[in-house]
Design brief:
It contains five helices and four strands, in the order ββββααααα. By secondary structure, it is mostly helical. Among the domains are: 55 residues, Ribosomal Protein L24e, Chain: T; 40 residues. Belongs to the eukaryotic ribosomal protein eL24 family.
Length: 156
Amino acid sequence: MRTYDDTFSGQRIYPGKGKLYVRGDSKVFRFQCGKSESLFLQRKNPRRISWTVLFRRQHRKGISEEVAKKRTRRTVKAQRAIVGATLDVIKERRTMRPEARSAARQAAIKESKEKKQAAAAAKKADKAKNASATKGRIVPKQGAKGAQQKAAIHSR
């Protein structure tokens, strides 16, 4: 049994069915039904009409059972060192227990507070030393900031 393909839709035409259209330049077109003939004569693009074979092929419809879906690749996490911390240090901190981590945090806070207090005490001592050195004379604001003092003008 000889079958033909529809020129427009791409569907199969069985014997005794369809229409034959011969153009002026003697090119033969076969259509399964009047609908596909009409669309062809309107110069419609079969790739834009959803029920044609060309559209279905272009948009990959109805081929899911033939080809298995392509598997996506899983991203692999790579551990890298950060500036100021090597990979060993990072891994060690990650495996550290919560109690040890909180104890280390408290120790770090205590150390920074002591350092801050020592700096404040040193600043206070320095300020007291400077105040005792300038006792008895009035120092202008600019002089207190470290500017050069003006030469004293003596009058007769």
